[in-house]
Request: fold
Amino acid sequence: MAMFAALAIVLTSVVQTTATAAPAQAWSATNFNAGRIIDDALFYKGNAMTTSQVKSFLKKRLGRCTIGDSGRKAGKTWGSTKIAKACLRNFTMKTSSRASNSNCKAYRGSKKESAAQIITKVSRACGISPKVLLVMLEKEQSLVTDSWPTVRQFNVAMGYACPDSGPNNSANCNSKYFGFFNQVYWGAWQLKQYRAKPQNYNFQRGATVNVQWHPNASCGTSRVRIQNHATAALYTYTPYRPNQAALRAGWGTGDRCSSYGNRNFYNYWNSWFGSVRSGIKVTGAIKTVHQRNGAAYGGALSPRKTIKKNGGGYEQRFENGVITYSKKLRKAYGVFDDGTTDRWASRYLAAGGAAGSWGFIAGTVASPGHRNLKFQRGTAISNSTVGVRFIPAPVYRAWLAGGGQSTYGWPNATALFPTGTSASQRFQKGTLMVSGGRVQWLTAAETAQWQRAGGHATLGFFTGPSVEVGTRSYRNTERGVLYRTSPGTSVFVPSGAYRSAYSKAGGLGGAWGWPTQNVAKIGAGSRLTFQNGVAVYSKKAGVVFLTKAAYNDWRKKGGYKAKSSLGFPTQSTRVVSDGSYQRYAKHVRFFGPQATVLLKLDPIVRAYLNAGGPRGAWGWPTSGLTQLSKTKSQIRFSGGIATYTKSGGVRFAKAAASRAAQTPPEAPVAPAEDPAEEAPSDTSPDPAEVSAPGAPEAPESLPQDAETPAARRD
Reply:
């Protein structure tokens, strides 16, 4: 049907063109407001009634069910249907569970539930008042008051999926949605959908639209400005406006162009539940602002709320807008949605309102080349291209100073605003980043690189321009430096221990080279890979740098794993002309020209290191520790033999003397750092700890750790 949006599931009243019997009343149908049939605060109050209250209400509306009386036996054929098993007041059925979705919370089914239980459970799940559902059930199928309803009435209880597309504008219902539970659940879901996705339907809050008087198009239309979501939902569900003849008739019949669905909704609500207005009070400075343009704001949705954030104040929400009072500003301002483009209030409330990132409203709409509205923490602008977008104060100042829309284009994404002085906003032509007083302009490619490297959560904002170094580049951020090592690869070196150690080592011009892989957790520490080795961090030693050979050797021997005998390295790899060595908490690994040896940090090794290590007269170790007796041990070096006794300490004999036929006097050695330490109890060198000359070296390319990610690819 033409009056429905293409994406809508078509719904309308099954009996909407039929007048109904009149309950007692103390109000007039002529007070029907076509633009505001009922307040949102009443329509969307899902907890308005308890199950017991609904049950009592149904009993009150129907004194006695006559099913079972003579001629009205349950199951008796009645036209094309049958008489139902029970009236609504005592109707029960099995219900199925429904998972939560965008409109309704999860519904847990049951083997047997009453109509009252179904109505209240659906209301709470979907956020539609049970009073709305009761009125809909009555205006669609008279189920609340009918003393002998039919199966057909229960099957199409809410008129869901029953468009007026049958012969002579009759209801054309989809049997897929038959059944009382189906009708109540999907009817409530659809009413909520109209509010959640208004852009999919012809009737929207704030819009002025043509509404037909009757399913017969020849009766014409009228122009209606729809003031709230509830009214939009009712027109989408039943897309006809009662004419004056229908309203003057009260509960009776009007003329040939009269429709009654929305009139009857209004009448039943007033008759059963009282006013269609919420009656929520509006007071003080907020009331003053509301009175200036009450029709634009609509009725109050909730009482005034105290806001503690952003300096404190008050906020009150209305059907079409919101008004705030800031204690800092000592003034109240309001904002409302205006048509389909300037959705000021909707965007503001979606961002958290006065307690959110925009802060309190701080002005009124102005138009210096673009429509804008000031807030406590920035400015929102609106145009037909991007709708309403909030720009944080530091970015807005930079945007204006740089030429505004002509230079950067309009904002086209939600701003990132972590602090009062730092923010980022994407525009049509690129991204503006502001950190303190530093403004950076990023191309789309640079923005994408920043996002892939972790964005603000990892890098913070850029604080300087990109510095080109040949085909590579680097750029400072709030939290470190981002290095672009190739057109498709970037590596981040965070501020703190890693960046400090890298800087002391000479940075890009130092021995470490360019970073090649991001920081990765390894056991109780972490590592950062460079061209020429790996920087390893532990809480005890801080950052130390290992050559590729030392790092690979460490990994092969257990590395950072909890059961490793080595533990984390305690010093950077020491490189000399013909080899290198690596210190750990209790061991030293030597990579010499004749052998690769792992030695415990015992008195001999301590004395050796004090004597200059591989650079000194002892040369490189060529064997592991040999235990000669309980009190004597030795290690062979390329320059001689070092012997330890508990009584004499460490003595070193040069190689020429050690080869003499007679044993020469041993040269005393300076005391070890810890002479009281007992010599290890090993009785022979561990062959696994000594690599003979010619043994294969550790690979020069670093193998991938199982928990080490590769460099981020742009």
